[in-house]
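One-letter codes give the sequence; the fold follows as tokens. An example follows:
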Amino acid sequence: MQLIRADRELLAELMSVNDAVPAITLAMLDGTFSRRQHAEFGARLVALGNALCARGRQQPTVVVDGTVA
């Protein structure tokens, strides 16, 4: 399966968010993560989730032996 540009960009953003989680977690734990940072990271997570859902809806559904794959 060949990845299209949109898939590569989506996966790059997923990797970037994933890479940011440890530092963000530490900042939350030590109280240095501001409300603005919370809002910005939350918006980033929501946008990523929406993009993943939208991409999933674009994928063809394959039924194999009575199960959806």
Notes: The first strand starts at residue 63 and ends at 64. Residues 44 and 52 are 12 Å apart (CA to CA). Residues 5-30 form the longest helix (26 residues).
